Here is the input.
Amino acid sequence: MSKFVLATANPGKIKDYFELVSPYPNIELIPQTQLAVDEVAETGLTFVENALIKARHAAQVTGLASIGDDSGLVVDALEGAPGLYSARYAGIQATAEENIEKLLDALAQIPNAPRTARFYAVVVLLRSPLDPTPLICEGTWEGEILFEPKGQNGFGYLPIFFSHPHQGAAAELSLQEKTKHSHRGRAFIKLLEKYTHIYAK
Ligand code: ITT
Here is the structure.
């Protein structure tokens, strides 16, 4: 049995990971919120730096191996914004609705803006806080920004994301469909394969 603290406080991410790990009975993920791990400042300038900061902090506080995730929505017409700042695009305490409104407004200011975008995730695995060889995998999910929100499922920017693999609005997908093709799903499955190959022999 391999046990990891999941270094996120985002309930939407936690649901995704529980779904993704469900076919693997030998992997146990414990959300950091159940282990009294506080949130750490995300001071990195790249997704990978922030994922490592979160994973290192959770490993340090709990003494467990950890999995960290940093992710966001990258919109081509906005030069990659909201990107690294997706969670706090409309302010530190911004709701998903406020972030969506700001993004749609920003795109509306650009005449004939291309709507292409992608979700991006980096997932890292640390065996200890000072692990010098973290496992690092990334995943993307290609799509386009809709003109208005559609669907009720999931979290964050899903209601304005048209998923190319599904040809539909991402917030209309079931959790199973979403995780199969999402940035997080692709990154995490690669990470599990790498982990099994390197450590779990
Ligand atoms: P943790 O740092 O505790 O993990 P967070 O929400 O702050 O939670 P990030 O800094 O990685 O995490 O921000 C990612 C943001 O990008 C997230 O809050 C959403 O707004 C958006 N996002 C990432 N993955 C998403 C997904 O699968 N569906 C919808 N929105 C997503």
